[in-house]
Amino acid sequence: MKEFNFKIPQNIQFGMGSLKKLPEILMENQSDHVFLISDRGLEKIGVVKKIQDIIEAGGIKCTSYLDVIPNPTVTIVNEATALYKECGATSMVALGGGSSMDVAKAVGVLAKYGGEITDYEGNHKVPGPIVPMIAIPTTAGTGSEVTASAVITDESRNYKLSVFSYENLPKYAILDPELIMTAPASIAASCGVDALIHAMEAYISTNASPFSDAMAEKAMELIGGNIRRFVANRKDEEAACAMMAGCNFAGIAFAWARLGNVHAMSHPVSAYFNVPHGVANSILLPTVMEYNALADHGRYQVIYNYICEGAKVTEDFRAEMLVEALKKLNRDLGIPETLSEVGVKEEMIPAMAEDAMKSGNIPANPRQTSLKDIIALYHKAL
User: Fold this and answer.
1) pLDDT, tens digit, for every residue of 123-139?
2) Domains, the chain, ordered by start
């Protein structure tokens, strides 16, 4: 067994109705002014006001930035940072999916250390702790509340940059399954498969360890056994709890094992064509897993048994069975089958492939991958 390390530095509160603990957590941190980062969609359906009311009922001032968009940009980070500095807040609440949390992490870096977010691009360039942050996910997908990356789109390069540092980890996370029970079916589906991919890529990563495996396997069990049920009925409390917990465990798994080609390739798809992250990942998944099958050493069968419907396979398993099961899962959940269906153009494949090869996830992929391989995979997924 190779050497590995891990730590769980956060306080994570899970449970139906756990939002009520937010003022208590803020008071523990002696925060009298909170900067809330979220989006207009959550404002429209009343979730933002719910959080604002909870904060203010605790006697704590709240200033909000609500212009976060999917695939958030450097411009949005700069706007939010300027408002944070202007209002005099002392802590942050990130409410939403991965986009809100990515922006909050980036704001936490710039508000504390200055400069531009591009100055921190890459690994371990954040010099110390960022502004204290509480993450409140409203999707069961990204796992950003327990991951060390902030992924931001640099419009000048059509490139999704990553700021990877364990200093980015939110200090607290509140996982209240009630918040994901109003999601549209399409969002529940793409976010749920994204979380499943986090667990799968962490599980087959060259950086996998017994710790990340434990998190990944439990995540696959919870998500694989409940994703269809949850997409069918988001009011199913048991399924919602399983998806929320599974997403969190998947996030912990990939925070310590990294990901692979699916995520390396999906980021350019989102950057160039503004395809939602979970959708891009889901489309690419069967193609990449088929490519990686050559490197399998028994883990595909484990994954298959967590996600397939019906009896588990104990013998005569073949890797293509998993690939077909993943295609069926996408079809069952109404996810597009090809990149062309979401607007990806063939002429951009060379540029996307160049950007994908810059990802830190490529070295963790179980099958060694060249630029030529990535180009071929994009063409196949198209």
Assistant:
1) 899 999 999 999 999 98
2) 11-179 (3.40.50.1970), 183-381 (1.20.1090.10)
